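Cross-check.
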Amino acid sequence: MKKQKKIYILDVTNRDGVQTSRLGLAKLQKTMINIYLNEMGVSQSEFGFPVTRHETNYLNANLELVRSGALKPIKLSGWIRAIKDDVEKACKMTKVKNLNLSISTSDQMINGKFQGKYTKEDVIKEMVEALHAARRLGIELIGVNAEDASRTRIDYLIKFARAAKKAGANRIRYCDTLGYDDPFTIYERIKVLAEEVKLPIELHCHNDLGMVVACSVAGAKAAIDAGVDAYINTTVNGMGERAGNADLVSVILAIKYSSGFSGRYILDERIKLSHAWKIAKYASYAFGVPIPINQPGVGANAFAHESGIHADGALKDRRNYELYDFEELGRGEPEIIDTGRQITAGEYSGIKGFRNVYDKLEVKFNDEKEATKILELVRYANVHTQRPLIEDELRFIAKYPEIARQIFTMAP
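Predicted model, tokenized:
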């Protein structure tokens, strides 16, 4: 019996989301995002840039969490240019095993960005050489990114993808880099590409025209209809360059509950929507960007009813005005805010207050020496994030002190 193809989630918060202008994440915060994505059942996290030196310790520390079994089964993958030198640097600087190799394919970018450095033939040649180098150096999972694919002539895109497949690529990433596609054009283009090349397709869409989730799910539908698996690139809360990327929670809800997808297209069974509220809140805190009040699933008004007709209908039967349940997203529990005395842990904490904080978390230390060691790391963490540490961050530091130390260490 032929195995039914599925839609998987490949989250790029820690690569594309952090490229949001004027914003960013500390390496501890990126680590927590990886942990939360893993708990949520997300298939893969594009966790950073292996040739960027300030990422090296963070990347290797997270890969150590994978090797130790603390961070699995999620796959962590790096993003680099599809250039042989970048592949070699990535493998020298980090222990990364999964890579996405990216190069521009549209006439606009080949002419306007490369400006004579590369021809169309050169683009394919560079990509193939990079792919061969990755295979030679032991990279296990290789995606090839066609940047600006939505503005690339389809015949050239097919030629590019076929060359990637022949050289050993596992997937093709179709990048709607400028949010140029609409749900109809991306369906048509992905269907043709997938039928011609027969490789799993990644959908990497941007929200410049406000259609990012629609385009992402339409592209995934085309890939499945053509007989290959689909991987939708998402970011938590839709963070990303310019108008952002496809919101993780919105994409999952669209696949699970939209009329054309529900029961017809299979989402990776490992996805646990019950973790949506937790990860959305954390990303909002870490980025310092409030969740929009009307954000699907996790916005403050996603389950709020004021109109008399709506309120009456929702109270009689939630299905009258609610398509899905708030409990399914991990919502509904009261959130307690302590308005009395609070002792917090920060860069100037003393040992007594620090011990009080960890006692409340029911984290015990063997002796004063161990407590002092963790206190020093918590101080560094507070300087590192420039925000009060949340309970999960404090627990992480206590449980993995040496990993935390590596994450906090930067040497220019």
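The mean pLDDT is 93. The chain has two domains: 6-287, 351-405. Passed to J.P. for a second look.
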